[in-house]
Amino acid sequence: MANQSLPSRIHLIGNAHLDPVWLWQWQEGYAEIKATFRSALDRLNEYPEFVFTRSCAAYYRWIEENAPEMFEEIRARVAEGRWIIVGGWWIQPDCNLPSGESFARHGLYGQRYFQAKFGTTAKVGYNVDSFGHNAMLPQLLKKSGIDYYVFMRPDKQEKELERNLFWWESEDGSRVMTFRLSDSYSTSWGASLEDKIIKHADMGAVDGHAHMTFYGVGNHGGGPTIANLEAIRALQAKFGADRLAISSPNRYFEELEFARPALPVLKDELQMHAVGCYSTHSESKENNRRAEHRLLAAEKFSAAAGVLLGLSYPQEQLKQAWENVLFNQFHDIMGGCSIREAFQDARESYGEALHIAAKALNAATQRISWSIDTMKPDVKSLSKEKDWLSWEQGDLGTPYVVFNPLSWETEVPVRANRKLASVTDDEGNAVPVQTVRASRTNGRDNWDTLFMARVPAMGYRVYWCFRDKALTPESAPSPVIAEGNVLENDYVRVEIEPHTGYVSRMLDKRTNTEVLAGKGAVPVVIDEHHSDTWGHGLRSYRDLIGYFADAEVKVLEQGPLRGVLRVTSRYNGSTLRQDFTLHHHSADVQVRVQLDWREKHKMLKLSFPVAAEQPETHAEIPYGYLRREPNGREVPGQQWIDVCGIDPKTGTRRGLAILNSGKYAYDVLDNEARITVVRSPIFADHYGVRDDQVEYMDQGVQEFAYALVPYEGGWQDAGIVRKAYELNVPPVAVWETYHEGPLPQKYEGLKISSEQVICTAFKQAEDGGGWIARGYETAGRPAKAELRVPMLNRSWTADFGKCEIKTFYVPSDAELPVREVQLTEMAMVQDESKETGSGNP
Fold this sequence. Notes:
Blueprint: E1 10-14, H1 26-46, E2 52-54, H2 57-66, H3 68-80, E3 83-85, H4 100-118, E4 124-127, H5 137-142, E5 148-151, E6 165-169, E7 175-180, H6 193-207, E8 211-215, H7 226-239, E9 244-247, H8 249-259, E10 265-266, H9 282-309, H10 315-328, H11 331-334, H12 340-370, E11 398-403, E12 410-416, E13 422-424, E14 430-431, E15 433-442, E16 445-455, E17 460-466, E18 481-483, E19 486-488, E20 492-496, E21 503-508, E22 513-514, E23 522-527, E24 544-547, E25 549-558, E26 562-571, E27 574-583, E28 589-597, E29 602-609, E30 613-621, E31 624-628, E32 635-636, E33 640-646, E34 653-660, E35 665-669, E36 672-679, E37 700-712, H13 720-728, E38 732-735, E39 746-747, E40 751-752, E41 757-764, E42 770-777, E43 783-789, E44 794-800, E45 805-811, E46 819-821
Parallel strand pairs: 1-8, 1-9, 2-3, 4-5, 5-7, 6-10
Antiparallel strand pairs: 6-7, 11-17, 11-38, 12-16, 13-14, 13-17, 15-16, 17-39, 18-19, 19-20, 20-21, 21-22, 23-24, 23-29, 25-26, 26-27, 27-28, 28-37, 29-36, 30-31, 30-33, 32-35, 33-34, 34-37, 35-36, 40-43, 41-42, 42-45, 43-44, 45-46
Helix pairs in contact: 1-3, 2-3, 4-10, 9-10, 9-12, 10-12
């Protein structure tokens, strides 16, 4: 009989927090996972009342591979209902930095693994140690079959919540019941288990509903101990088993759903625990961005080559590559707070993923290019007599096939690694060209040719390259001016201050307005000696101690297609090289950066004061965007941010978007945006001993790109989302020769009627019986879109809500209709018979 009562019911959650990588490498994590799972199984044998909760499909895969007998024990305990699968994702990732499609893949591969191996999927999302949680997660969770969410960070000192249990809602209206741990996920820290229970019960009494209390040794594994379970038995005797239940998150949320307490609704991001994690270890973050995009491109053209030409789709290889990327998104890897050796492992893992994607992309594009009809009447057989580099015969030209992985037609600069006299499109129309310096220095063979290619959506186009035959385009573009310290075209004028290298003026000639309120692209050096690797306890990095200056400005290119100014500036032993590029057809300024960074405990930001009053700022988040306050706080972003407001002279609304190819942190204070380029803390330094043996992050050379996009009106109508993808997803080009083939010289693989909707993924379905197309609404406005896939002879119409993600299953059997499915490619929960569109053109 209990002799003391608790003021509210407590659900005790047996947990083993286990970082597979942190202050150790993955091999040690691998061993620790086996030992921890063995310990949990021992507790299940010893204590018939015990229930164990465990996430992360990657961990189960390791057990399956390396300890198959133990895996069978786990399967039996899952079937018994005492080993509870939660999370549904491949790992517990950082929840700000992966792309929207990466979160979709966590659900796809995690949930399908659990379904295949255990006959169940997770209903509770579970990221108890991740440092912040993006505002689109409710939709990403719901469309992965997950109805509930558990997290711990940010804690109450980092973000005030009305209550630790609430409905969390994303922009599209999706909701998940969400619980924030009131204390640690572990009993190896701080207060005793009894003290935690009493504290949580008191909180539950105030809130009017039960709470969860987690127990078990954590971080390096361990899980619930014999001492934990003996203590629980004693506490149950004291308080009563009805008030102190050995439970699981599943049971907790099911009880709360049944009780239906009145809960607050939060429509916001859950930020954040440690502001420095979005700028640590540039290499792994840049590799993540590249791998995500390359895998998507490889999938699209592998699917196209399969449909059009019967090429076998490399499903298992691509899945392996995705699993590498998803594992490296673990919050202590992606967040940049692990040991140096862990990042060497991540480099190898990303390298494997990138190489798998490269091989698949090459196989697909070359299979397609080889099947295009490029034969010329004068060609009898192949012969390489004219030139050692190409198969051109006479002045017939060499076919160069340019592929566009994106879901809209693009007009992009393409570089051919030959010096050419002229280039025509597939219809024989000459296009403007510009001779540019090559990366090689091979005798006189050190020139490439630049031309603008207009390529259909998720398709290709053949361009003909002539070594000697000079052809003049019917209409020549106005050349770009690149003189001294000025770049100018018909749309914009950019002036560089010679001695500093800063942008002293950016004039939008379309509206005759100044884009900047002061000097822009200013390299600001910030002191961060007071920061640990994570940036614990900080809200911003604004302790300015210097600037890069002592600049050299040099005209690198001037021609009909683009002008380039190279600006080289210095600070102490570090050198910053920025190639400012302006193309003839656009007001966008693209900047290719090479940084040789030699600073320690310092941060580099690029500053852009925007000529905007009443400023607002927005940023891309996974499969969406978010408006934030311009309060100077260091925050995460993805491929673009903007600052917009009222032009002080004209009173019109305008702004500046800043795109990037691999950076994830920034701050905006009033109208000044600062993009975080690099910071150099010590590896895995939590205010430890800083002796002469420590090693610093990001020393040496790194490269990335950014772009400045001035616009009038709102960012939604300025093509910002598409421009950001174009900066990150370059075209793919293949040199070809003369051959007959079934394919035309120009092909469109996809067509979407609404400019607001982007198709990010097109792949073979996991069941092999069809194809998957996934897209999302980008502007925060409802849209109706027709999606046409010519190679499948399919079209369908769908209504997209505000910021809504939709996944379509297109059966290989043309008699079967296209239908909407979850991110997991399983049937939609709300209506399993729902079908979208007729499935036929």
